[in-house]
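Homework help board

Subject: predicted structure for assignment chain

Our instructor gave us this sequence and asked us to write out the predicted structure in token form, then describe one feature. I got the tokens but I'm not sure how to describe them. Can anyone check?
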Amino acid sequence: MNDVKLYILQRLSALIMIPLVFCHLGLMIYAVQDGLTATEILSRTKGSIIWAIFYSTFVLAVSTHASIGLRGIIFEIFCFHGIILNFIGWIIFLSLLSLGIYSVYAVTKL
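My token output:
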């Protein structure tokens, strides 16, 4: 994928992340102010398809955004090009995505 497409993809992932971050932070602040503990919060997410979709979308957007950003940093620091740089970017993306989806599964246990 060329740099222009990656730039656009990173900006689109940021646009997706903005409302998700605000929703996540707002819900966490609301829950904590109501005196809910982490255990109580997690018990409410078990089996919820809505939370699974919400956080899976979040994980996909973050994985995309972060892997493209780290790919740019690796390019600037190590001057990797072409296939090596793309391979590293894909490894970062797949690692973040798999860890995130595993976490979503652990929290929702669908």
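Reply (TA_rk): Your tokens look well-formed. For the description, you could write something like this. The chain has a mean pLDDT of 94. That's the kind of observation they're looking for.
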